[in-house]
Amino acid sequence: MAASPGRRRRWEREQARLKASVVEEDTEEWQEDARFAGLERVGGVDLSYIKGDDSRACASLVVLSFPALEVLYQDCRMVAVSAPYVAGFLAFREVPFLVEAVQRLQQEEPQLQPQVLLVDGNGLLHPRGFGTACHLGVLTDLPCIGVAKNLLQVDGLVRDELHREQVRSLQRSGETFPLTGTSGKVLGMVLRSCNNSSKPLYVSVGHRVSLDTAVRLVRACCRFRIPEPIRQQQKGG
Q1: Phi and psi torsions of 27, nearest 5°
Q2: CA angle 110-49-9, nearest 5°?
Q3: What order of strands is seen across the sheet that includes strand 53-65?
Q4: Residues 6+ apart with CB under 8 A from 79
């Protein structure tokens, strides 16, 4: 199902309106601490589709303790997805279900509300600088971080031989290099998240967090390549 030109224009206007509220810097005390003192709960969200059916999905939210990374809360609901998939507008298809999951938690177990959300997707690393992690962050007003497994090729960023060479240069866990677009803006960071996998993560700011803090926190949440708040809820889903 394709989106009509009118719907695309509405979505573009909505993205531009919401983007004005994105905060690209740290807003919480725990973010300033080298060991994230004061951070106790980290969430992860994802929408995973039923194999062979892109109209049915499981919207999941997991909250882990920090720094132990033990599961405190898990919610997975089957949802009917009706909005069409359009590149660059994925949030309009998925974010409403993720917002609902956060709101359910706030109503049912408010003491378990996450202090930050890791989103399986992108934030500022997006054709219009407003990916799913930004969209969810603005609508929930929670700090959000985009964590993607593949490079979204925007603003001149390409998965060419130079990029692959830079990825190969990441020898140890925690090593990074910036994703700088042709516009000159740093859109995200490439992170080697563990020693056991040479495949990196693409980390970007969603809302109410700086890029440096986002990278440090993602690394602190990794036992394997994928950070635990995302890995656990994909396992559970």
Answers
A1: -125, -5
A2: 85
A3: 71-80, 53-65, 41-50, 116-120, 144-148, 201-207, 186-191, 176-180
A4: 47, 56, 57, 58, 59, 97
pLDDT at 3: 76
> How far apart are alpha carbons 133 and 120 in whole angstroms?
8
- CA 12 to CA 8: how far, in whole Å? 6
In a 13 Å sphere around the CA of 228, the CA atoms on its Cβ side amount to 19
Spatial distance between the Cα atoms of 90 and 81, rounded to a whole number of angstroms: 11
Dihedral, CA of residue 14, residue 20, residue 25 and residue 26, to nearest 10: -70
Residue 1: predicted pLDDT:
60
Mean pLDDT by 10 residues, the chain (237 residues): 84 96 98 97 94 92 98 96 91 96 97 98 96 98 98 95 96 97 97 95 98 98 97 72
Q: Name the residue among 219, 217, 195 with its Cα closest to residue 30.
A: 217
Q: What's the confidence (pLDDT) of residue 4?
A: 85
Instruction: Please choose, from the candidates 112, 107, 181, 191, the residue with its C-alpha nearest in 3D space to the C-alpha of residue 145.
Output: 191
